Structure formats: structure tokens, C-alpha cells
Amino acid sequence: MKPSLTLLKIGGNVIDRPETLTGVLGAFAGLQTRKVLVHGGGKSAGRMMLRLGIQPKMIDGRRITDRATLDVVTMVYAGLINKNIVAGLQRFACNAIGLSGADANVVPAVKRPVKETDYGYVGDLTPENIGADTLERLLELGLTPVLSPITHDGRGTLLNTNADTVASAVAIALCRHYEIQLLFCFEKNGVLRDPSDDASAIALIDEALFSRYKADGTVSAGMIPKLDNAFDALRNGVAEVRICSPAGLTTSGGTCIRLKHDSPSVQHP
Predict the structure, then answer these.
(1) Are 257 and 171 in contact (CB under 8 A)?
(2) In the list 31, 63, 86, 253, which could disulfide-bond 96, CB 3.0-4.6 Å?
(3) Hey, what domains does the chain have and what are their CATH numbers?
């Protein structure tokens, strides 16, 4: 039997709120499994860009990354946020090591080709290229990798990659070594039926429901790539995927993602 590993992805207001982040890191440090943390930080980067006179641009929840934007997100993601999270985990005796995708070649990427949209310096991932063996060696040394979503193309160019995509790809790559639980943690209680009502979290979403919710607008914008990555992880061997709030980390709350309903007791809402 493969050992268990929890891969936690955090972003949004979890990172922006120091007390919330401290609570999440404490709960994560206390998990009795091997652990990997992937973080985003789009709101922090957006604020820094505005301070520098750069207007952020997003399409369907994904950032357009020109050269100026790349410089900012590299400083914020791989620098400030990454090292603050590493320091926060050390507070809880979780021996963390902060990495960008370029460090030890753990997350190589390919610059996204220009089609209908030019995303700029954005990297696309292939799970087979993730440095899973390197991450396993770090884990076996008792270290907890903390990955920023700054990747690289192997030719000296850094790339900005969606953090949910990094989390999914790393989870898939580590499946050959571990039984993976993938948690996407953000400020909401899960995938909400009504974005203005935090009590409207959907307990379970399968692929059929996802298609329906996209069509009727229940899920949109940044939630679509998050769910795309969740289903991709499940299709490629990840054992469990859940989208939850910080409170859901220790209560098994939030939205459970499955490829299909496998229990006759569970009914579509």
C-alpha cells in the first residue's frame, strides 16, 4: 500500500488574511501524512501591479502575463508569499522548503501557444515532466515542499502558471509514489450554488453536474479552471479531491469532487 500524502492548494483571501493563513498553516502542519503545499496569490500580485501602474488583465479566471506582469508575479509569488508561508510553517515545527518550478527543475512548463488569446508568459504543464522523484526525495527527508506557481521553460525563461493547474499536475505526478488527497482551500465554503450565500455550498459535484452548472451559470470565471483541474486529477489517479474553506480542512466539509455518483443514496440537487 502506498503511503498517504495531502496536497493542499491555497489562494485568494486565505493568503491575504494573516489570521486565516496562520490557522490554515497550523491545521496543515498538524496533518499526520506527508504533505505538499501549493499556493497562488493573485490578489496580492494584483495590488502590487496597481501600485506600480500596471493594469491586471484576466480572461475566464486566468491572468494575462506580459513581461512587466511576469516580473511582478515572480517577486510576489516566488518571493514574498512563498517565504512567508515557509516561515509560517516553521512556526508550527513543519520543516518546509520553498520552491519555484525552476528550483531543482521540479515544475518545467511550455509557453502557451497563441490561439484566440495571447496569454503571454504563461506556462502549460505535463504531469509526466514534473520532478516527482525530486519531490519524493525531499518528502522522505522529512521536508514539506511549498511550491509557488512560477515555472520555467528550460531555456532560461520563467513562466506564470495557474496555481490550481500546478496543484493538479503535481498531485498526478506523485500518484506513483503516494495515495493522494488533493484539497483546494479558499475563502468560500466550497462550490456555491449562490455566490452571495455562503451556506449554499454544493456537497458533491460529478462531471455531469459540472457540465450542467457551467451551462446554467452556477459555476463561472475562476471556478471553472479549478474544477477542470479537479476532474483532471481524478481521471489520472488522484484518490480524493475536495474544495473547501479553512474550516473544512479539519471537518471534511466543502464540496467533494467525483467523476460520477457512485452511491444510489446520493441524489442530484
Answers:
(1) no
(2) 86
(3) 4-55+71-108+130-150+162-257 (3.40.1160.10)
